[in-house]
Amino acid sequence: MGTKWIVDYVADLFNLNVHSLVIDRNGIWAIDWINNRQEKMLECFKFDKNPKYHLNAEKDLNYVLRNARASDYFVLNDMFPVNYRFDGILGPVNHLLISHGHWVTLDNLMTFDFIKIKVRGSRISVTDLHSFLRHWRAGGSHQMTYLGLQLETYRNFERLEEELEIIEDRLRNGDERNGDYSITRNDGVKAVMRFGTQSFVMTVLPPREII
């Protein structure tokens, strides 16, 4: 009640909206409070790690993912249960950062509505990436301009290189992205990809950078 009173007093005094919200699981009540107190969406939402065991962990996480709203940054730092799965839609938001992303599936990547996505601790497989690139090439996730995955374990991308027919020749033009791979969407938009044993990065090129 004290937090609500202080925020309401200051916001009303200076005619301001709440810009950002940083909470852990003990602060989930603030999501509905913010959604009800102002029409303007938060610009930044951050869900921080709570190291203490919580009986309603999956229920709370589902509530946060389905109800928290932000326009610019959506940051998830909390630990998710090993077998946690999310079947909803996140976004639209500009940036998504997930610190413990073992729960992020291929379906999640295909339905996330973000411009830039960065996931640490990902369990996405090479086969999943193959499917995602075909999805992107067909026009899916058209708003996305960056996807960065730090993988939880080693991945052998030779299989992706051999099987993915849509990958074009390795760039050999002296460009600073030399050594990357290029992929073209059906509408002519290009993206470059770089992958290591435990990382995958895809960057969509703006029109002036199309090569």
Topology:
Blueprint lengths: L1 H12 L6 E4 L5 H9 L4 E6 L9 H11 L2 E7 L16 E6 L7 H6 L2 E9 L3 H12 L8 E6 L6 H6 L17 E4 L5 E7 L2 E6 L7
Parallel strand pairs: 1-2, 2-3, 3-4, 4-5, 5-6
Antiparallel strand pairs: 6-9, 7-8, 8-9
Description:
Helices cover 27% and strands 26% of the residues. By secondary structure, it is α/β, with parallel strands linked by helices. The protein has one domain. The protein has a nine-stranded mixed beta sheet, covered by helices on one side. β8 and β9 form a beta hairpin. The radius of gyration is 20 Å and the shape is globular. About 5% of the residues have low confidence. It comes from Caenorhabditis nigoni. Keywords: Coiled coil. InterPro entries: F-box_Sdz-33. This is Sdz-33 F-box domain-containing protein.
Largest sheet: 9 strands, mixed
- Tell me, rounded to a whole number, the average pLDDT: 86
Question: Strand-residue fraction?
Answer: 25-35%
* Rg from alpha-carbon coordinates: 20 Å
Residue share in helix: 25-40%
Distance between the termini: 57 Å
- What would you call the shape? globular
Report the uncertain regions: 169-179
Taken together, the total number of domains comes to: 1
The beta-strand count equals 9
Helix tally?
A: 6
Strand order of the largest sheet: 1-2-3-4-5-6-9-8-7
Strand-pairing-aware structural class? alpha/beta
* Element string (H = helix, E = strand): HEHEHEEHEHEHEEE
